[in-house]
Amino acid sequence: MKYPKGTVNICNNTKNNTVFSNRGMSLEKDINSTNKYYSDNSIAFIYKKPTPIKILEFDRKTVTIKKAVFEAPSTTDYNGLYRGRYIDFEAKETDSKEGFPLINIHKHQINHIRNIVKCGGIAFLIIRLNSYSKTFVLEGNVFIDYIDNNLCKYVPVELFNNKGHEIMEKYAPRLDYLKIIDKIYGGILDE
Question: Would you state the torsion angle of the CA atoms of residues 174, 180, 183, 185, taken in this order, to the nearest 10 degrees?
Answer without folding.
Answer: -130
